[in-house]
Write a structure and sequence with these properties.
The chain has 137 residues and is mostly beta strands. It is built from one helix and nine strands; from the N terminus they run βββββββββα. The longest helix is centred in the last third of the chain and has 5 residues. The chain is elongated.
Length: 137
Amino acid sequence: MVLCQIKIDSTNSLTLPERKYHFCGLSGRYKARVIGITWVDNTSASDSRLITLRSDCFRIPYGSQQGVIFCNKAAPHLANPQGSFNFELEVVGNSIDLEFISSVPYTGGVQDAFSFCILSLDVQRIENENSFIAKDK
């Protein structure tokens, strides 16, 4: 498998960016697994927020949710915030659309600012037309 890292920066106002495409250098279908999330924000020590990372490129077989959920304070300490299950990643044009949703919005204030995130994925190209997820059933 190959490591794919994507850096997502804050907006100029230190809030979460809106959904947009981020360059990843991949194209095609991949078996993928989140191996790490580096989340850097400036909030108080007791200010834990539930963060949902969504993408239309994620094909997650375990439920209807198309995202990864983690806690902003736990992200630097968790290798894989949702367990080590595999999902499909379908990329067109070398970019992945990513959107972050926070349980408490970041306002950009002194103790309420988002800085950046680095999403680390372990990916392996799917060579044939059959989905590896369908084969597991």
